[in-house]
Amino acid sequence: MRYRALGRTGLKVSEIGFGGEWMDGTPEATRAVVEAADAAGINVLDCWMPDPTRRSNLGDALRDLGLRGRWVIQGHLGSTWQGEQYVRTRELSAVKPAFEDLLARFHTDYMDLGMIHYVDRVDDFEGVMSGPFIDYVRELRASGTVRHVGLSTHNPEVARLAVLDPEVEMILFSVNPAFDMMPATDDLDAYFDERGESAAVDGMTPERAELYALAEETGTGITVMKGYMGGRLFDAAQSPFGVALTPVQCLHYALTRPAVASVMVGFGEPAHVAEAVSYEGASDAEKDYASVLAGAPRHAYLGSCTYCGHCAPCPRGIDIASVNKFFDLASAYDEVPDSLREHYRALGATAEACVACRACEGRCPFGVRVAERMAAAAELFGC
User: Fold this and answer.
1) What ranges in the chain are assigned the alpha helix state H?
2) Does domain 3-294 have CATH number 3.20.20.100?
3) Taking the domains of the chain in order of start, what are their residue ranges?
4) Which of 31, 126, 211, 333 has a 20 to 30 Å separation from 239 between CA atoms?
5) What is the pLDDT of residues 152-162, one digit of tens each?
């Protein structure tokens, strides 16, 4: 296993990390996965989940295997369990007991990384960083209960604000080719004539390219979520590129972005650990995502949303790209995960606000039937 510096935190983390979301089975099953991860050299875990089962399963496994002192844990502030369901909140009356519960279930008195949980709106970031929430984080930092301050977001605009804030030492950010890339021009033929690494560079949204450069410049480390895009990138029929990528290629894409230290991979069983850590011994040819994307079927994007944002603005205030992103991620599951449902609802204007005016469809370079997708998203999420 290779290890990387996590920005200016001084921490060294394995480039393959452990996203603990699927540890809702038996304690024995969780222990088997944790044991396999540790044997593979993994030493960083993200625990955003507020429910008692996942927290206790993971915390007990780390204690029983004697791993707490060796592992770096991202523990989230603002992820709470209320009425038997996940609720993101900034209300300290709920935030504090939820974080204390996390510490107790992990049998520890500190979190290596105290993550300000899921900040996807600029106004939320501004409120968090200027009010009682950040005061609480500062108290935890001063007491050593939180060793370093991080923030999780899917929004590059919020991520940019975070990397420019000296109090935020690292971010957990969604990184994969589909989230990063857009056509360099409206001429798709010109885009698909590109080859090699230049295709990825030229296709990246300016906002995200700037974010990665700023993170590198400011020493703000990045750990990655959504690296596999919920598995959608593994299936040519579901991928917006029209070709399938392998887990190794997705990992290599994320790990070659500036400032990225580790990719959090969701493991459900020990075999998933082995699949991910095979990256460590992969050849250059096996890692080569760029040639696959550059050789994608011509016009493979047509009809598929790449979340580029050309559809904006929506007269009803819908963030169409984000709705489509959450819809695509949720469609990969038999049941919509609580986290995705909450992220979707937090958008404010959801798909049910769509009046099918189709103004967006005239601006989409890929011919996406946006109104139909909004109707499907409203049905899937219930709003």
Assistant:
1) 27-39, 52-64, 92-105, 122-128, 132-143, 156-163, 177-180, 188-192, 197-203, 206-218, 247-255, 270-277, 284-287, 290-294, 320-331, 338-345, 359-363, 370-381
2) yes
3) 3-294, 320-381
4) 211
5) 998 889 999 99
